[in-house]
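Example 5.3 — RDD family protein
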Amino acid sequence: MSDQSRVDTTALERRYGRRADGSLRLGRRADDPPDRFRCDLRAEGPRAGIVPAFLVDVVSHLAIGVAVWWALDSVGSSWALPVGFLAWIGASFTHRVVVQRHTHTTAGKALFGLRLRHPDGSHPRFGCLLRLWTVAALSTFTALLTP
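Solution (predicted structure tokens):
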């Protein structure tokens, strides 16, 4: 076979990977760099703690928004409700995206021994956490606004 007619399989091997018998398989190889847009996360830890951890996180975010609303309302501000709402959203984003990116868990997950990881063991990146938070926020607003 001449060099010109030979196909470079390096890109295929990177995309598909090789089995021990030499055949190609779809999926990543262990030595490939992590895909920054991948977001197939698994909860690592006791399954019974998933719902309580979620409730702890949601209640803490809501408590911050309510505290800001109450503080502004007690001084007679007409902006109390919108600023309280923005404080709730800001607390949720900061906690579930920024803090979780650096600590690999949220307060609720930490209380119940949970962490989010990709199947290969890597931690979620900022883009993945942002995508998850955005979908959850839009789902929450949709549920609150539809009768």
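Remark. Residues 105 and 115 are 5 Å apart (CA to CA).
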